[in-house]
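P.,

For your records, the input lines for the assembly:
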Amino acid sequence: MILSRRVVISAMNAVCFKRSFATASSPLVPVQLPSRKEAHLWYVVPDEVKSSALLHNYLDILSPSEKENVFHKRGEQLQKAALLARVLVRTTIARYQINGQVDPRSLKFKKNIHGKPELEWNDDQCQCAPSLQFNISHTSSLILCGVTVDSLIGVDLEEKQRKLKNNILAFARRYFTPHEVKFLSSISDPVVQQQYFVKLWTLKESYVKALGKGFSGLPFRMFTIQFRTAEKGNSCPSGETNNKGEIIVKSLEDVNSFSSNWQFALLELAGSHYAAICMEKDEAVEGEVPTPMKLTVRKTIPYVRDELISGPDAFVISGLT
Amino acid sequence: MASASAASVTFRALSKPSLKSNVTSSLKIVSLGWRKNGFPSLRSSQFRISCAAKPETLDKVCEIVRKQLALPAEAELTPESKFSAVGADSLDTVEIVMALEEEFGISVEEESSQNITIVQEAADLIEKLVQKKPEA
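Structure tokens returned:
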């Protein structure tokens, strides 16, 4: 399914983009803001971005320090992924405009005390919704950006096949909680165990990224991620696609309570990656039956093509939708 | 290498200039004795330096990083190399720290991991933690 909302561009904007994007076939298609309980996910597959002219034009969007960062990466693949990550963030945010076009180059970013990137606003930059929240994650083969309105969001990507150099249980004993170690130990199939390790890792990363603290700000052994199946109350390796279940996080300081402020979703993306999404819950529904996290997934090559994605390229493994 | 001029002593870094900041920040000069002809005498008993990491420690860190990231032999890895620049993501960095813990028999607090962004910083932290270990 192709997003083909035709937008009439003003002459001024056409000139702006034409100058820089001779090879691009279309401008950035603007989109409506996500609703309060919704997260928009945008992803880029680096291997599908082949045109060096396009990549060259993408470089123009970046700030000087972002460009420097890209060039400091060793090797073409790392540089390309770093470039596409910044392009994805800037162009994605630029699409959510209220009053007219936003030049992705004009966006400014800052970092919080733990290093989480955030949007920095001037008074004159009122075109974008000031309450936009975003988070990004990438591997060498996939770049993902999640966007919400008002809710804190954290996303993490990992290749499904990611193998540890260390032994999984040794690693879990060192960095995860006893509950999670017990959970992983209970899985006899090494392939399934490895997959659940990756799922746990991405979910834990998405949580600390949503909080804006990162791994060093909130050590992984301080909180437990549990998978709850729809049938039982206990966590156990649930079936893959049919049994959606729920993912919850528990602070280790108070094991009997669980943090109801956060909801999770775990997806399989592009057939190759697990993507964990952690989002702050809408306060309005506190105490009620958990509201499903609504996700809209789009694959994009900025200025070239956007596609609305549903299964099998993006389907939810766990977490209510 | 020390060279004196008038009343000041300057130290020039032996190797790459970028290592200089590490060396100077770790230098603790207790006292310098001056002879009659104006040249300083660096008496070892009064001259204490806490250095940046030993070369062997740096080498070992590089070896572990190379192994974790499966870097090709020709890939450059220096003390100033940023982990993220050579392709280490957060999981790689944690695995590297775990391997360093096992190799050197130390324990690295998760809170410290945000300070380990380049090879040199990892080696320096290891040196600090190894020195803190009780005598065997």
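Two observations worth noting. The helical segments of chain A are 11-20, 52-59, 64-72, 76-95, 168-175, 178-185, 190-211, 214-217. Confidence is low (pLDDT under 50) at residues 1-20, 232-243 of chain A.

Regards
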